[in-house]
Amino acid sequence: xxxxxxxxxxxxxxxxxxxxxxxxxxxxxxxxxxxxxxxxxxxxxxxxxxxxxxxxxxxxxxxxxxxxxxxxxxxxxxxxxxxxxxxxxxxxxxxxxxxxxxxxxxxxxxxxxxxxxxxxxxxxxxxxxxxxxxxxxxxxxxxxxxxxxxxxxxxxxxxxxxxxxxxxxxxxxxxxxxxxxxxxxxxxxxxxxxxxxxxxxxxxxxxxxxxxxxxxxxxxxxxxxxxxxxxxxxxxxxxxxxxxxxxxxx
Amino acid sequence: xxxxxxxxxxxxxxxxxxxxxxxxxxxxxxxxxxxxxxxxxxxxxxxxxxxxxxxxxxxxxxxxxxxxxxxxxxxxxxxxxxxxxxxxxxxxxxxxxxxxxxxxxxxxxxxxxxxxxxxxxxxxxxxxxxxxxxxxxxxxxxxxxxxxxxxxxxxxxxxxxxxxxxxxxxxxxxxxxxxxxxxxxxxxxxxxxxxxxxxxxxxxxxxxxxxxxxxxxxxxxxxxxxxxxxxxxxxxxxxxxxxxxxxxxx
Lengths: 250, 250
Prior knowledge:
The structure holds 2 protein chains of 2 kinds. Chain A is mostly helical. Chain A has one domain: MetI-like fold (Orthogonal Bundle). In chain A, 82% of the residues lie in helices and 0% in strands. Chain A has 10 helices and no strands. In chain A, helix 2 packs across helix 10 (215-249). The two termini of chain A are 25 Å apart. The model of chain A has no long low-confidence stretch (mean pLDDT 88). By secondary structure, chain B is mainly α. In chain B, helix 2 (39-51) crosses helix 10. Chain B is globular, with a radius of gyration of 22 Å. Chains A and B meet through helix 1, helix 4, helix 5, helix 8 and helix 9 of A and helix 1, helix 4, helix 5, helix 8 and helix 9 of B.
């Protein structure tokens, strides 16, 4: 194991342990936070009893729909803007300032437009994720070196072959960055929308437990959401590393 | 062609605004009065709102919260980020943790913050700050790391002391990236504060939106949303102009 990884594990263990001690000694009161060990035990209990299974499935389903549509639409729009530079120039300020706009302010509007069901939540996740995908797709295409395109021309490759054998593999790393952000953003969007106003899902259950002062349910659910997103994040991080390694080995 | 190069972005902006307005009007024709107000009416509603006495106390409240959250995010983010950038091992230890923190839905932490701070200003400020601080840390850490080694070697050759090294070499070299971090940090602090106001507050723009949502007051939702989007876009365009200029000279 690398030295930094080892130190990191110790740091995390120290933080969690410190929190445990503070909670056990009542420096942090029980109404504020329950000890981390109880959060884990509570999570095991919740998963075993299966009370929240419907919510977990609902949230993950919404995230999946939002994510897949954001990736597909984002990639296609990015590719389209790349071949239409005139349109791209017009839309560029919107792309550059998009993430400064609090997308959540559109949630009330979306509820009125789409109804109080799962679609406004999916829409928020989609809206948050899609632009990261567009921007990074464009970025990837922009960075394909001219020399590679010239080489493709020397080999008399057609448009389709150039796209699939040269441009896409070359842009892949940037597109992957977009994908990683899209995963995080769609998760954030869906959970936040559930939190603001909805009838099911993990975000809803957390806010419900909070409103009823049920810390014994709320904290395990928070751990679950944070754990899930950290896990997905770590998997993608490891994938990217592997991909990078293969690229440099070639 | 000075005039032409100045006119072009202006023309692009006009086209963009026109397209957005048309799409908005189209959506109105499709969805009707229940869902949204048409563009022209919204503009006049927004102007009314700007002239009304009930609006400004909320603006003040939100402004104060954003300013305090931003101050914490900037001071904390810069000092942590620059330190992690200089000390390579701690940077390596911290980076995956920071990236994971960036990608978790921080809204799930909102109940925790409310339990710690109670409802009111401190909770909003804390929520804004935890959104803004992480990108500032990540960007300033990378800014320090990516300083060209030649600069440092040259400084050593010239026998610069630590203070001139910091003010003459490190800061100017890191500034463009650090500024990008501040730009992203500002946007996220605003988003975080607004989200905080949507749940745990009795005042502020976010609270106004949440209340309007509860009473299905489309006029308020639409005009407040319009003003917010305009404000966020204007500030972020201004920051983006500075950002691009810094990067060009850097």
